[in-house]
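Continuing the batch. This is chain 6 of the set; chains 1 through 5 are on the previous pages. Same settings as before, nothing changed between runs. Recording input and output for traceability.
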Amino acid sequence: MAGLDFEAARRWAQFDPRTTLARRRDDALPFVDAASIGGQGLLLDTCVYIDQMQDRSPQVLDELIARRQVNHSTVAIQELMHTVGVLDPSDRRTAGAIAEIGRHIKAMPPHRVFAPDVEVLARGALLSGILCRVQGYGRDGRLRALQACVLFLQAQKLGLVVLTANVGDYDVLLQLIPAGRALFYRRT
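Output for chain 6:
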């Protein structure tokens, strides 16, 4: 296992703005449309799977996924498996939800599933701490921020674009690290 260069990670975090960043208007952000169908490979945020399972994904998103190289992160798998564990076994809907989550995970081709390395995990945690402090995230937002930061940096390292409906977190991440890439969509 490769070690972490702690000092290099700290130097990397010199972008720390020390002030709250405002969410930009939608017209300043990259949203999925007919013109974005072709292009760079995608790394799916967990919300994409959930929106597809709940039939909340817009048609243009489904077309984009059908035409671009789709990649998966163990971060999203972890979040989906967390959902399986959280679901109430006594709820009559749980068995169907678990089966649907299982179907999505099993459909991920193994050669398209990527795990973040120690550098991405460490820098993602550092970035998440900055994001939580600067944006004033409470306890409820910290885990979400950590997962988003790791996925964002993993996509950057792999040369991929994060596909997400999470405009709030990823817009701030794009402001902090403009070299990263994210593509947004609105749920139907």
